Amino acid sequence: MTNDNGAGGSPDEIRDQLPADLDVTGFVGPYQFPDNSRRRIPAYLYLAIAALCMVAWFMNRDGDTALVNDGVLYAAVLLAAFAVYGLSSSWRMKVDERDALVRATQAVGFAVGHASAQQVWRGLRSRPTWRVFCYSAQEPPHQRGLVLIDAIDGRIVECLVEDNPDRHK
Questions:
Q1: By residue range, what is the domain housing residue 83?
Q2: I need a labelling partner for 75 at 20 to 30 A (CA). Which of 15, 17, 127, 157 fits?
Q3: What are the φ/ψ torsions at residue 135 (nearest 5 degrees)?
Q4: 10 burial class (0-12, 13-18, 19+ CB within 10 angstroms)?
């Protein structure tokens, strides 16, 4: 006898099942990091809601109603400030993780074996940056490097190369 998920046992038996988005058999390609320019969508929504709040406050600023008071004006200002920040930090990334790995390999100056890239953000305006950690191709690796690559213009922000301290353990 099989239950709804195809496993054996009674239909009342509870079985753990891997969610569809984590099922490796449904793999369709490499993961695509989302672009920071998507931050514009909520920023425009904040601006629209701020404009509506401003209009509501302006139309009822006489104090005729208890539903619209100065708090609506403060909300409009706050939402507009969030919108400005969202728009100013919605950078369009031009360097993906593969390009970042290539640039990191060029920056460290040794043949890279294992490497990993992680997206991080720098500064007040959340500028996207790739943090690439790489090891030399020897077994065990003789060197390791950490390279920060700007995800907008591809420049090397920082590069640190050192001998691998785990090599002699």
A1: 36-88
A2: 127
A3: -115, 150
A4: exposed
CATH number of the CATH domain containing 133: 3.10.450
The two structure tokens encoding residue 33: 């990091």
Residues 84 and 101 in one domain: no
Instruction: Report the pLDDT value the prediction gives residue 1, as an integer from 0 to 100.
Output: 47
How is residue 56 written in tokens? 């509501």
In a domain, 4, yes or no: no
What is the C-alpha separation between 38 and 89, in angstroms, rounded? 10
Residues 69 and 122 in one domain: no
What is the number of domains present in the chain? 2
Question: What's the pTM?
Answer: 0.67
pLDDT band at 19 (very low <50, low <70, confident <90, very high): confident
Same domain (yes/no): 109, 76: no
Beta-carbon neighbour count of residue 112 at 10 Å?
Answer: 20
d(CA 151, CA 132): 12
